[in-house]
């Protein structure tokens, strides 16, 4: 990996072309410059005019935004994706030429992508754009971190590249992406909203509970789908703005590919890594928010001491603790959960901290942690095959790791829940819940109903 400082994009590209000539191979180039602060959703909207696939990422406290346009590198894999991806990225990074302004020293090329919930799932039409694991290094990446903005341009340069022409094209795209965008403040108007067979779903929950009570497993998460049709194509910028504004304490993400977008506002962190310091979270167990402060406090208090929800939660804590064994030291997990409040509901939450061992990367951890019993069950294998055989929907990327990592394998993955797949004027939303001994299908049904709310509101559905 070479890090240099050069004056202009063209200078940097020329340096890269010389390298490509010497090595007789294309050079992977990443150039970062500080820029004036821009609105991330405007940048996302402007990206539409470049006719490229886009990604959007923001963290729960909104101290970080990434907006990516285009694909300088795209990587797809169906089996053993975590390890192959790690290997592939190491090779690419070893050869990379990273041009950073001093103030942008931590910025550089990043891979953004996701894994499927179940690599063995047979997907049909619905998930065809997100089939298997898919990662990309955006051609243009906007970073806004603690109020400072940077633009990173990633591309390959070969010995034959016309550097002047490429530099001019990059400059034109750059101007377009950074110019002000006027955004209509309009809602998407819902024509039709269809819950996929709620009665069959409740029966499945009852059947799952019976299987659990018969000793097949301790916990199994069962999800369902809500289909929506709109009057016109969904305005994605509007959806992002709504989620960013309303869904505090949640990651906001959007992955676009060939006109299909996977969007969500998830509260659930799978793993965050910086300089081998690791954060993870156990999030399971749910109750609604109260209408008054007093009611809210009472519901929260009941949730904290509710046996059924505590049981759902504890399986996640135990699994994550076990999975980190051998990967990390100094694992710290509090004995009891606290409340994690969201706009429409509240969860039981236990934070996890640890130090990763030297050779372990964020991808090794994501592979080991996914799927936690917050999305699958306990024991994992049994729950997974039960879901594969019985669930009435295709999960695709729902409930799976989604996020990014950089050239030092620092990065973050969230669990893609409170999410939906949007294409033109249609959307499919997904929500699940943890079934344990004594689960009541009606109560679980109501729980999934509130879990649809964040995306339903953002898409312009019920208030
Ligand atoms: C499976 C989902 O939520 C999980 C995360 C938090 C709480 C959960 C619960 O209480 O059942 C679920 O395990 C979903 O939102 O689709
Ligand atoms: Mg639950």
From TrEMBL:
Mg(2+) binds at residues 312, 447. It comes from the Bacteria. It is an enzyme of class 5 (isomerase). Its cofactor is Mg(2+). One of its GO terms (biological process) is menaquinone biosynthetic process. The active site is at 219 (proton acceptor), 268 (proton donor). Residues 198-451 form the Chorismate-utilising enzyme C-terminal domain. SUPFAM superfamilies: ADC synthase (SSF56322). Transmembrane segments: none annotated. It holds the Pfam family Chorismate_bind. Its EC number is 5.4.4.2. One of its GO terms (molecular function) is magnesium ion binding. Keywords: Isomerase, Magnesium, Menaquinone biosynthesis, Metal-binding. Pathway: Quinol/quinone metabolism; 1,4-dihydroxy-2-naphthoate biosynthesis; 1,4-dihydroxy-2-naphthoate from chorismate: step 1/7; Quinol/quinone metabolism; menaquinone biosynthesis. InterPro entries: ADC_synthase, Chorismate_C, IsoChor_synthase, MenF. It catalyses: chorismate = isochorismate. Catalyzes the conversion of chorismate to isochorismate. Belongs to the isochorismate synthase family. This is Isochorismate synthase MenF. The lineage of its organism: Bacteria, Bacillati, Bacillota, Bacilli, Bacillales. The gene is menF.
